[in-house]
Amino acid sequence: MGLVYALQGAASPALDRIMLVFTQLGSEQAYVALLVVAFVAVDARRGRSLALTLLAGFYLNQLLKAAFSTQRPFQIDPTVARSEAALATAPGSGFPSGHAQGTATFWSLAAAYVRRSWFTLLAAAVVLLVSASRVYLGVHLPIDIVGGLAFGLAVAGLSLYLQRRGVKVGRTTTVVLGLLVPLALHLLVPTEDSGLLMGAFAAFAVGPELVRHDTSGPVLGRVLLAALALALVFGALVGSSALLPEEVKRSGIGSFLRYLVIGGIGTVLVPWLGRGLRLTPGAARPAAEVRASGGTAA
Q1: Which of 99, 102, 217, 277 yields a CA-CA distance of 20 to 30 A from 122?
Q2: For residue 81, which phi and psi values (nearest 5 degrees)?
Q3: Taking the CA of residue 41 as centre, how many other CA atoms within 13 Å lie in the half-sphere pointing to its CB?
Q4: b/e map of 188-224 (b: 16 or more CB within 10 Å)?
């Protein structure tokens, strides 16, 4: 608790707002936007790998939280809770920090793909700012942050190792396993958000096998398609939240299918629209190239 008290020694309403902004960089909404843009507009193959790795890592994080079941700082000392908005970002137990783990996984893997010094510095800054905000806001102990960073880097490292091993899986096998394995994990080993995580994982595993997406086209076309994708995906998120009955959203199959469909909008519908609207290239690539980009393990 010493570091929590030390950081809060400089607390002020303005700093509270700044730290809330930093902490939102590790939120669900931020990752939805980042993954959509990465897959649709930057690099479909690597965007897919980023999504699969991040989603698998978050599922692991929730299993670890359930196993360790540790207290958060505001549960030990309620006076360190900076605001209700901060508490709203902290469901469940403390160790390991999901924000720290997610940022370490996403940004370290992205930095490994981009391989530019400026981007590596940006990635490191995001990880440090998000991690520091969690301690300042009184929602995580330093050990939670250290554990989250360690697990996050380990997940990213394992993903890179599997990709460099060149694991190849056929399209049919990828589609079948990409649907059945996440569904089985969600139903047999459920977590608080396993419907979201495993449904979206299945969408990224299966979607690119159904409709190939090419991000080698003109920048303007990719930007327009990314804007369309964000509108459709967030519209589906908000719309399904408002329209679906609670019993459907909370059911095992219902929650999985909801996020499978939302993920499918980004990985199937948007690429199809991109080709139909001529915002992305539509010509078929050689079979060997298609095989090389498909079925990549996370």
Answers
A1: 217
A2: -70, 115
A3: 17
A4: eeebebbbbbbbbbbbbbbbbbebbbbbebeeebbeb
Statement: residue 295 has pLDDT above 70: no
Q: How many residues are there in the chain? A: 298
pLDDT greater than 50 at residue 279: yes
Q: What pLDDT, on a 0 to 100 scale, did the predictor assign at position 282?
A: 67
Domain limits, the chain: 2-293
CA–CA distance from 276 to each of 126, 203, 259, 271, 286 (Å)? 37, 21, 24, 9, 20
pLDDT tens digits, 264-278: 999 999 999 999 999
Cα 130 from Cα 126, distance rounded (Å): 6
Which pairs with CB-CB distance under 8 Å and at least 24 residues apart come from 282-285?
282/214, 284/212, 285/212, 285/214
What's the pLDDT at 290?
A: 41
Q: Residue 138, by phi and psi: left (phi above 0), alpha (psi -120 to 50) or beta?
A: left
Return the residue matching tokens 């570091």: 3
Rounded Cα–Cα distance for residues 28 and 196 (Å): 10
Between CA 68 and CA 156 the distance in angstroms is 22
What mean pLDDT value characterizes the chain? 93
Query: What is the rounded CA–CA span in Å between residue 133 and residue 124?
Result: 14
Quote the pLDDT of residue 288: 40
